[in-house]
Amino acid sequence: TLPGMTPEARRAHYADILRVLATLHRVDTAAVGLADYGKPGNYFERQIARWSKQYQASITDPIPEMDALMDWLPRHLPETARDERLVSVVHGDYRLDNLMFAPDAPRVVAVLDWELSTLGHPLADFSYHCLAWHVAPGVFRGMAGLDLAALGIPSEDDYIAQYCEYTGFATPEALRRDWPFYLAYNAFRLAAILQGIAKRVELGIASSAQARQSAAGARPLAELAWQLAQQTR
Question: Checking CA distances to 38, which of 2, 30, 48, 55 falls within 20 to 30 Å?
Fold first, then answer.
């Protein structure tokens, strides 16, 4: 929520955050020598399989919603997710705390933490970034339920419309229709990542307070993912 900023400053920062992500997704990967930065095709199928294995290898207390999602997600890929023409560099963890800003302007000057980056589906990357609108404050950097208009933070609908205008990858109507799938997929993916942390905490490999707090987010995110999946039309 960028505490200490005016609503106008928050609005300007969020505008540039979105601009930078849309710019990344429009990069011509072949022209910049990144045509082989990831595997082509079947991005969602491969990612769902990858994170399913990650979860299964790191179970501490079983989460029934994860089992349900592992079955449900591959069977409910929407049309926009099947569009093999949509391939871009995806950051994989594009969020506010992986960005650096100019000290004197609402301008992103660096994007950090590229370890999950690859070639993939840009709408997966964008919807991951938008999870913050759906996650409760304190669970995982969320802001669901806050008075965003008063804070100067754009609504998710406005954010989606602006991203579609920047990229032309989908119409706002088509993307909103498929939106519950994208959010469910990303909450599932993040839950699998946090479950991996939970396993490391159990094994004593990770012991910091931050690691324990992150690990505790796996179940709420899995539950959120399953709730979102039920909203699919």
Answer: 55
